[in-house]
Amino acid sequence: MSPTVVAVIPARGGSKGVPAKNLAAVGGVPLVARAVRECRAARLVTDVVVSTDDAGIAAAARGAGAVVVRRPGDIAGDTATSEAAVLHAMDAYEAEQGTTVDAVLLVQCTSPFIVREDIDGVAAAVVEDGADSALTVAPFHGFVWREAEDAEHAVSGATDGGHGVNHDKSFRPRRQDRPQDLLETGAAYAMDAAGFRTSGHRFFGRTELVRTDPARVLEIDDPHDLARARALAPLLDAPRPGALPTRDDIDAVVLDFDGTQTDDRVLIDSDGREIVAVHRGDGLGVAALRKAELKLLILSTETNPVVAARARKLQVPVLHGIDRKDLALKQWCEEAGIAPERVLYVGNDVNDLPCFDLVGWPVAVAGAHDVVRGAARAVTATPGGSGAIREIAAWLLGPSL
Predict the structure, then answer these.
(1) Where is this region: Disordered (predicted)?
(2) Which pLDDT belongs to residue 238?
């Protein structure tokens, strides 16, 4: 049985340096939602818990697909530790879910450019490699200085000069001649759950260092940090410029139904029966994808029998009437042995966003909700119900389709 790995994101509402910091948008997405998105997409993470005392943060976290644990006031103040929040969230999760957590992660949403690979890196160090605790670090080559204060000068604010912390100030070796220093990024930590409960601290036993990209290291503590993050987001969040997927990139195509294979309109007759319109070209595109031996699935929240009828016509498996499409998609990938990063998911509305966060190729159809188009890695030129699926098939199989 796979270990239960729970990622906890502490996100209280009382930030003073940046008011409502955890709801601040970077790249058009609130910080707490960015962190939830990457945790949910990580291979080893079973579930994501946001610990908060704020109703707005709770709503954003639920919208991104997290379980929310209400943080008590006595561990929600300025002096409360992250460890206290994680321990409380872990206990609450176990009580609610009736399960035992094997490993717990502490993920800070104030590190806006954390990626799922970093989260999996610290989780794997504990659950696969046997470490007791782990953290993300980045190579650091700077000379660190500290002002030296004595008691007399401290009163007046004066200092007694400066001294080197990680170097002798009288000796300046070349970078390649110095030991490699590693900077704690503050983004992600992992702990064996039992050991964490015993120690009460995130570092205990054998602590593994998981290296990450220095370009992504940024902690938001003040408005200047937030401005930098917003300036960097278009560079660090962007997929390959102008790239469209090819058959070599994709093992499976998962299709939403309403607004993706239809134009999102419903006709209702006098007996209350619902009728939708589909595009014949999409049928040809699906047939070509099936012939190319791509795994296919129609995934919809809609309960109308027309969804199953269309799936039978296309000879494609279907899951419909699904409340949590993201959980169904994750389970389908696991059962089919498909890596989520090699899945292309096509959607049009905000209920598709949790699935977007799971896959390597989230695709929006033209005419999709603005937020969905903004979250997509590619957008079709053709609207849903007008041949968008055939267009995607042509991306993968060639323009002659």
Answers:
(1) 154-177
(2) 61
